[in-house]
Amino acid sequence: MNCRHCKKTLKHIFLDLGFAPPSNAYLNKNDLKKQEIYFPLKVYVCKYCWLVQTEDYTNAEALFTSDYAYFSSTSTGWLNHAKNYADKIIKELSLDKDSLVIEIASNDGYLLKNFLVKNIPCLGIEPTASTAKVAEKLGIPVLRSFFGKNLSRQLAYKGKKADLIIGNNVYAHVPDINDFTKGLKEILKSKGTITIEFPHIMRMIEGAQFDTIYHEHFSYLSLHTVNRIFKKSGLRIYNVEELPTHGGSLRIYGCHNNDTRKTEKLVERILKEEKKQGLQKLTTYLNFKPRAEKIKNDLVEFLIKQKNKNKKVVAYGAAAKGNTLLNYAGIKKDLISCVYDAAKAKQGRFMPGSHIPILPPNQLYRSRADYILILPWNIASEIIKKNIIKKKIKQNL
Ligand code: JHZ
Questions:
Q1: Is 352 in the pocket of ligand 1 (CB under 6 A)?
Q2: Is the CB–ligand 1 distance for residue 71 below 6 Å?
Q3: Per-residue pLDDT tens over the stretch 278-326
């Protein structure tokens, strides 16, 4: 396989998590009788541009289906994050009724609704019908499609160029990252701004967050690599922010390369920090595997110990990352009897691979569990606040 960005041959494996079904392919009862499709989950690192990427086995259409079960609005923390960002950027860019905001992967409208209430014209681009329908109900116009150069040319031809293009947790999700980036350039007004948020690979390596690897995530990104990809497409990163979301993310601010805005010092600072942390050294990537293995082995050991002591362990949060962990560790419902999740689209269904049933959180009160394993550790504090510290559960534990 060649690198999706620089096209050089990929030779170095960052992590091999065996075989897994797509992380968001939640199963219905009937599906349990059928064959489940597994794909290899192997991640390579490119020694030339340092793009960390999954092996080519499946395509985006097979992952982002019409019944996609991830709804961004399930987390209040994420909704607040979206609102704070919208308030800040509207002010910063002086957006008004004459502007156009385009969000790629607009999901259920969790973010664009903040522009809508301020009468700022917006357009969502979203391929999954399940989430797009919800956004449309809010009054957000949605183009139900994947984004790339072809679509952007059609938009530009119709005069739909944006003052602000937003992409939150979508950049890592596109197989052809060069084509996607060229598409951004195509629909950006001459003085327009792009903001993109993605989990920062520096934090992923630092925290051994191997469960954020799944087929949906084609790339694991550093500022260094994204900077290269932007430059190649005639764009420039003029600012960057570090965010605590998803275990540590970056929000980059981009513009056309000839834009007059100056590049902020922070860009250089983070690039230097990445270098210091060894992101341009092969050994940094090759040392990751034993750390992931240890976490997996410790968890399995803990679960077997509890089982032998007749203790009950349940999980909370049917997150995509939870599926990576469970499938890599080979955990089934004999070790974790069920998972509780607030997303209606997941309740009554089963975790892909492990087939652990997903139940609504109100049933947690009756579970009489000895341990609750929170799979989406990135929002553990919100989950604990909302559910677990409730007195009722405390009494039952
Ligand atoms: P969450 C998501 O990953 C999805 P996920 C996506 N693929 C991506 O790229 C990354 O983010 C960056 C539930 N929940 O978002 C809702 C409760 O049940 O952290 C979700 O099913 N009760 C786009 O899926 C899950 O937890 C609650 O109170 O790995 C969270 O998943 C809250 C707050 C959430 O991670």
A1: no
A2: no
A3: 999 999 999 999 999 999 999 999 999 999 999 999 999 999 999 999 9
For the question of whether the overall pTM of this predicted structure is more than 0.90, the answer is yes
Ligand 1 geometric centre to CA of 376 (Å)? 6
CB 315 within 8 A of CB 373: yes
Residues 264 and 389 in one domain: no
Total tally of structural domains belonging to the chain: 2
Residue 63 lies in a domain: no
Alpha-carbon distance of 215 to 130, in angstroms, equals: 20
Residue finishing a domain among 276, 301, 329: 276
CA–centroid distance, residue 325 to ligand 1 (Å): 14
**CB distance 200 to 207 below 8 Å:** no
Same domain flag for 182 and 330 = no
Domain identity same for 79 and 205: yes
Ligand 1 pocket, residue 341 CB under 6 Å: yes
For 131, the 3-state DSSP assignment is helix
What is the distance in A from the centroid of ligand 1 to the CA of 12? 30
Which domain range does residue 362 map to? 288-394
